[in-house]
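On clarity, I found the account of how folds are encoded harder to follow than it need be. Since the whole study asks how a given chain folds, the encoding of that fold should be made plain. For illustration, here is how one protein appears when written out as sequence plus structure tokens:

:::
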Amino acid sequence: MIDVNGYDELNKLIWNNKEKIILLYFGATWCGPCQQLKEKIKQEKDELKDMIVLHLDCDSEENEDIVKDWTISTLPTQIFVHVENENVIKDNRIEGFDWIKLKMVYQETKNIKAAQNN
């Protein structure tokens, strides 16, 4: 999990990892479910090895524009993204702590990437 501070860092990390499954994870230090999900992702990192998790703290001033532009109104929020034709595409959005849905979307995304590479 990589902590992201600001658009420049976010864009650089997305473009440098565009061949991987990318998950934007929006959370806050005061949010209990956010902290639980953060720990679960860390614990299951071997199971999610094909995914890069970019953590954005919604309380950080550097991330205010990102939170606004990505319309984050529920915490935690996870958004799978990919790069296509020089654009960042939002694939799936999960609001709240739903580990089963997160793993299902991860597996679906992994299968799609594998099919595209064959």
The two ends are 28 Å apart (CA to CA). The chain has one domain: 2-116.
